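User: Sequence in, structure out. Go.
Assistant: Echoing your sequence, followed by the structure tokens.
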Amino acid sequence: MRSLLACALALSACSVGAFEAPEASSASDIFAEAPRPRRSPVTLRVASYNVLYALAAEDGTVDADTLERATSLDADVLLLQETNATWEAALRPALARRYERCVFHEPQKWAPEGLALCAKGKIVEDELIPSELGGFPAQRAVAEVSGVTLQILNLHLRPAVANPAEWVDSHVKTRHERAREIRDYLPRLRADLPTILGGDMNEQPEGTSSESSRAPATTARSRREVSPPQRGCGLAPSRRCRSSSTTWPTARASSTSSARRSSTGSQ
């Protein structure tokens, strides 16, 4: 049964978690009836960070604090959201020192829909899965890290978009949409691999999207929770944010950003 780790993030937040992935046995089918030796679990560290597309300026500069935070996360697998060509140009040199491979997908329709995934190992599969609700796509990848082959689903779930006075009410009313997005993605996952769901859930910890990722058919006994998410500066205005306005305007992707669908490199 596929083991599933739900990495639920608060709005535009960063979360880091570790889980133990079982190593595959090398015993031949001829000896299937014999007890298989227990193997030491492999601990993998997974991080997710929404860099916020609006923090990448048209002149090619990006927010220095965000760049430092995103590239300082020493994880085996790094998930990024709201990337674009400007963010990729800034992130790749720093990430190349830590990761063997990074795969970036630039936004095609909406400016915040860019996604990227980096791994300290090979990325042997990578694809975008469109949202059946018309939201942002998800990035599904298979990576070989620390001797373990695992599947990762990098999510950026559909946000609630409203003015500050009405945002909380809109957020609660649209929770079922984020839960449905996760349920729609699950059939697209391979059932033979340990699987991590991570990214920007656009949800509070008590939301329904986390429960949707724990469906009985996809949850293994070895599931472990990640560390509590840290609140970022997402759609809801916060005193921690530099501006009282929301940081997720509903901007469309520019023609420059949508010129290339994806970019891969040997980082």
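User: And one key feature?
Assistant: Residues 1-13, 24-33, 215-251, 254-267 have pLDDT under 50 and may be disordered.
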